[in-house]
Amino acid sequence: MSQPPRFRIRIVFGPDAMIGPGKAELLERIAATGSIAGAGREMGMSYKRAWQLVETLNAMFREPLVRSTRGGARGGGAAVTEAGRAVLAEYRALEAQAEAAGAPHAARLQAMMRTAPGET
Amino acid sequence: MSQPPRFRIRIVFGPDAMIGPGKAELLERIAATGSIAGAGREMGMSYKRAWQLVETLNAMFREPLVRSTRGGARGGGAAVTEAGRAVLAEYRALEAQAEAAGAPHAARLQAMMRTAPGET
Q1: Is B116 within 8 Å of A5 when comparing Cβ atoms?
Q2: Could you report the predicted ipTM of this complex, rounded to two decimals?
Q3: What single-letter DSSP state applies at residue A115?
């Protein structure tokens, strides 16, 4: 029995405005770790890359999604704002709704696929 | 008035088995042009890359999605098979259903976004 297919959904609002699984996961990990660098590290991302993504997210929305206190004794911390939690919740809800709606088609695609070696 | 957001959806069936907007567009363009190289060229893709994607697609499914006649007088042609058309139709239907289901959330995300410069 093979795994159900997973959906990776990127929403493109404009040429420089998009949100997808990477940014959503980064927000979640910042909320969990209280650190942009720590969240990025967990995702195998450089410090610079994680900061760039946060800056992109903060520039995309009317209100910042992440607030940081740079340069403190422990290198500063970061928190996901109320706007950030709202954006994350909408994205996760969108994913869930889209996956539920697409699931019958995904199952039919999967049925047309070759069985991977080792699978039964 | 800004454009409605677009969804880019990748379905991940396994570590090496996924289908998304690029493969779908390639299939469509092969059907339209009758040529793998021509389809790839239209997408700004190298000949090698287009062939690799076709080989990946053909290996993923029980039946080939693209049949090619390599090395003819005009360098060979290619056609999308019945299985290929079925896969493409399922993917496009999945996209449409997922977009419709996700649209209210995407609209709420868009409403939280900063208005881009020049937009009203």
Answers
A1: no
A2: 0.89
A3: P
